[in-house]
Amino acid sequence: MPDMSLPVVNPARHPAQHWFESPHGQALLASERAQVEAALRERPAQEWLWLAPVADAVAGYESAGGLCLFPADWDRSQRYAVPFSIPAESLGTVVLQHVADGARDPALLAECRRLLAPGGRLWLFVLNPLAPYRWNWRGTGLGGTEPVVWRRRLRRAGFAPEPVSLGIGPRWNPQVDAVLQSGAGIRAAYLLRAEKRAFGLTPIRSDRRQSPGTVPATA
């Protein structure tokens, strides 16, 4: 089993963190709670990694079979110490809960792929840029990205994303809504899951040509 004894990072205050601590942010995180728990239970024989937006989100899970972390700050270049001190291909599940909103982070995706065992799954929670709820996070530094863009990023990183995202969370008011819908729609966020591809060996084509009826020489 991998060493999962890394400490939980102490976050610095930032408008983005404050938003997830606000009633609007708390309603969204509460809406996603059941799906996060489903992710952590998905592969009980393997460890997991959960990157959450605030410390409150991981309360009670610090020693529940995996590692919970949240950003030390929201500076895109220094939010995480990548690579993590976790062995390669030792995890069954990685949850990225609003730690990649509004920015492409190839290094983080590459690290998730390194950590996951073949067939392991990445659970990505992302703010929906088309949701009316987006007006609530204006000015915080947060942003959303459409599912089609994330699928392209995941494929480039070596993942096989599911063809349909799952909308989750409030539509207008800060009310908990944990019911999933097919497609992001106008929900505050969406869930996109992707499996780590297990690349096989590419067959090597021989350029040697033989005449019909010729028997190859044997040693």
Tell me about this structure.
The radius of gyration is 21 Å and the shape is globular. It has helices spanning 15-21, 23-41, 106-115, 147-156, and strands spanning 47-51, 66-69, 91-97, 116-127, 159-161, 166-168, 181-182, 189-196. It contains four helices and eight strands; from the N terminus they run H-H-E-E-E-H-E-H-E-E-E-E. It has 219 residues and is α/β, with parallel strands linked by helices. Strands 1, 2, 3, 4, 5, 6, 7 and 8 form an eight-stranded mixed β-sheet that branches. Helix 1 packs across helix 2 (23-41). It has a single domain (15-196), classed as Vaccinia Virus protein VP39 (Rossmann fold). Helix 3 (106-115) links the parallel strand 3 (91-97) and strand 4 (116-127). 21% of the residues lie in helices and 20% in strands.
